[in-house]
Amino acid sequence: MKQRTGPAEPFDFRFEKDGGGYIVSGPAGYALRLTGGEFSAFKSGRAKEGSALFKKLAAAGLLKGRLDLEDVSDRTGGLSAGAFEGPGLHILVLTLKCNHACVYCRATSGGAGDTGMSRATALKSVETAFRSPNKKLSIEFQGGEALLNWPVLKDAVRHAKKLNLKAGRDLTLSVVTNLSLMDEKKFAFLVNEGVSVCTSLDGPAAIHDANRRWSGGSSHAKAAHWLKRFQAAAAKDGRKDALPSALMTTTRLSLGSPRAIVDEYRALKLGGIFLRPLSPIGYAAGVWPEIGYAPEAFLKFYRAAVARVMEINLGGERFVERNAALLAAKMLRGEDPNFLDLRSPCGAGIGQLAYNYDGDVYTCDEGRMVAACGDDFFRLGSVHKNSFEELMTAPAARVCAMASCLENQPCCARCVFKPFCGVCPVHNYSTQGTPWGDIRSGGWCALQKGMFKTVFGLLEIRKTRKVIEGWLQK
């Protein structure tokens, strides 16, 4: 066989057959589609110098003879930027108790013993967060229902702001709440202290209230009421960073209503939606037969919902699908959009830490959920016994970094979407009993690849690409 030489010789590349053609990517972090004929010419080194195909391949860093090493370095560094910054997200679980009984969550209003984070533990957790070298710190208060431990939340907010007077970090504070316990005093404190609010919103009232059960009435009605109040406060102050946000969890009940769910977010003027699949982690794993679904069922829902999002945008209204925006930022710009699940290595430990109510620290909130079901595999230590350095070098942190580095995943190493993707060790552990796992099992690969292909297809169409590029404008 004649050796391929010359400027058209292919550089290290990955490919996948898709329809009648191929999607190809290389180390520079570009992805492009080739027809069958173009792919044949490319892989055999027969792309004619100066041709449109040659220029396209050279621009994507796929030809040895035209490799721009500086561009490869810049894009590789951009896609991996978060791996070198230290944990920026710090999740404080203020209580395990909740006044809701959501179908995918274990939190309850009862529970054995006191599961509220003490003031001392909260302050110590905040101090541990400030030990991170990351210049951007996001401290997020969760539950259960975080507002059930309101005094400690207030003290932790004030302590974080006090520490930051000296530290000078880019600090953001947020609380994740179902909003049913919100009142005027809490509202005023959060607005005055600049604490942003994130709530769950699974869609129209019928879907939301079925998923997020509350004995006090309609959970949807309460969430909608307070979302509007926080929106009005942010508009009055002219602060876009203070706008409330909402997260949707897709259960089996959601699958038949993609357009209605998108339209609900639009009606509440949330500016966009983050369409995300349900993960079989923690309590959700135990009720998966009732609320779960196969990857293709979610992808069908996702494609239909994104189609509705595009209709809205092509009608002249900016409305972002945040999952698509994240994937596009990677593929178009070679950027790390700070989405911890799709890093290589992932954000467990090196990108986030989760502080349980008792001071135990976990690699991530998903790892903490596994612990809530009786398995401490992802525990790093305790804020009361371990230093930040000890937490960061704990066995679980090292295991997660190794298991989620895609070079260590045989099925990922040659995947066309490798430059942009990531794997979750907690997902692997929950579905297969090992943080490494077989990425083809458990649904993770099918879900991520399906979403990447959906977004890649939108980027190939001029009008939808223009919409997505508009989402990425800062």
How does this model look, in words?
This protein has 474 residues and is an alpha/beta fold. It has 20 helices and 15 strands. The protein has an eight-stranded mixed beta sheet, sandwiched between helices. Strand 13 and strand 14 form a beta hairpin. Helix 9 crosses helix 12 and helix 12 runs parallel beside helix 19. The longest helix has 20 residues. The model has no long low-confidence stretch (mean pLDDT 93).
Question: How would you summarize this macromolecular structure in one to three sentences?
Answer:
The chain is of the alpha/beta class. The chain has helices spanning about 35-45, 50-60, 70-80, 120-130, 150-165, 185-195, 205-210, 220-235, 260-265, 285, 290, 295-315, 320-335, 365-370, 390, 395-405, 410-415, 425-430, 445-460, 460-470; strands at about 15-20, 20-25, 30-35, 90-95, 100, 135-140, 170-175, 195-200, 210-215, 245, 270-275, 320, 350-355, 360, 380.
